[in-house]
């Protein structure tokens, strides 16, 4: 069974079970035979787009409800599963907690900056924005030539479609931790 057939099979079965519908009732609602629905649910049949539309219309759901992979409502990301990307001679660690999702159009990144860290960033796509909150320590964010000094608990939002940079002084003894959301 190919991948899309598995997705449709799982989504159809889950939908039918959530609504407590028998195959007979789904057949009545959709105009797709009970035997065909059974084959689809078991992944034994690769339904045509017309059949998928009939099922979606009969069940009063969107087409994508049947053909998209279900994503869990809750996702836990353990720190130990996120590999950091280092920069600035290891003085900056970037942890992509929730990597860019093209549907949601944002990503969430944790930053750790040691003393003396400096990381310039090229402008992102037009209209991109960054939301940054300092969780521990202090840091500077430079946007459009202006420097903003931030401490634990401070937050900043800025257009990221211009040059910007993150830095810490050489004298800062503690590690700075921050969380950033980039919206594209």
TrEMBL record:
Ranges where the HTH cro/C1-type domain occurs: 12-66
Keyword Transcription: yes
Listed Gene3D superfamilies: Jelly Rolls, lambda repressor-like DNA-binding domains
Coiled-coil ranges per UniProt: none
Signal peptide limits: none
SUPFAM superfamilies recorded: lambda repressor-like DNA-binding domains, RmlC-like cupins
Gene Ontology CC annotation, any one: cytosol
The protein's name: Transcriptional regulator, XRE family with cupin sensor
Species: Anoxynatronum buryatiense
Source lineage: Bacteria, Bacillati, Bacillota, Clostridia, Eubacteriales
